[in-house]
Amino acid sequence: MQSDKFPPERQAPNHYTTIEVARILGMAVRSVQLMVDRNELEAWKTPGGHRRISRTSVERWASAHGLAGTGSPSHAPAPPPATATRTQVLPAKSTALASVQAPQILLIEDSVHFQNLVGLIVKQHFPGATLQVANDGITGLALYGQIQPRVLIVDILLPGIDGATLITTLRSHAQFASSHLIVVTSLDESQREPYAFALQGVKVIHKPRLVAELPAALAECLPPGLVPT
Predict the structure, then answer these.
(1) Which of 79, 98, 113 is where one domain is finished?
(2) DSSP 3-state assignment of 37?
């Protein structure tokens, strides 16, 4: 039985390049490389030194992380450039909400799937908030300095600079004290150990639990009047 991630008119290959997997999963190439290094994806190298990644392991990872239905390389949209940012202004739904100055939420996440998922959560539960998105740690660090968001949501594994290093850098600045920090990650507790130095006292949400746990975590950080009654 063929996976629904691969259209019936095209038989998917048994393996992919790193770039193809990045397109399939909506991630940056560097993130895919890190996944291979952590043995989350089965891969090998050609005589020329190029990675080839098992199709089966890609399907298995996508299914485990709620990405069923992700397209094959020829049908999947290309992820945004690593240095791009996307701003999504979520309108207030009532006069009362409009009277509250829209708090800024900054999401630093390179997966298009999880960018969209967080956007939907914010839109549904906090329609008066403004969500801005950075696709990599370097851009996220610069954008943080510009907007100084009330809430920072950051992934641990990011291209350019990993989330733990980014958090450590921000903590060296006094302005960071005014922000609430939420970390989201696909890493389980044992895999997070190398980043423990940056995660002490931080709310960490495992990505498979994002829909269940993020609304409550954001509610603790945002003004009560922002949530429609």
Answers:
(1) 79
(2) helix
**d(Cα 112, Cα 170) in Å, to the nearest integer?**
24
pLDDT in tens, 93-135: 333 343 346 889 999 998 899 999 999 999 999 988 999 999 8
Q: Can you list the positions of beta strands (E) in 26-108?
A: 43-45, 51-54, 85-89, 104-108
Which of 10, 31, 7 is CA-nearest to residue 19? Answer: 31
User: How far apart (Å, rounded) are the C-alpha atoms in residues 218 and 175?
Assistant: 20
Please say whether the beta carbons of 71 and 26 come within 8 A: no
C-alpha dist (Å) from residue 119 to 46, 63, 125: 39, 21, 10
CATH number of the CATH domain containing 26:
1.10.1660.10
- Token code pair at residue 105: 């939420």
Q: Whole-prediction pTM value?
A: 0.60
State the DSSP H helix or E strand holding residue 154, giving kind and residue range, or none if neither: strand 151-155
Nearest Cα neighbor of 216 from 207, 225, 227 is: 227
The number of residues in the chain equals: 229
Residues 139 and 89 in one domain: yes
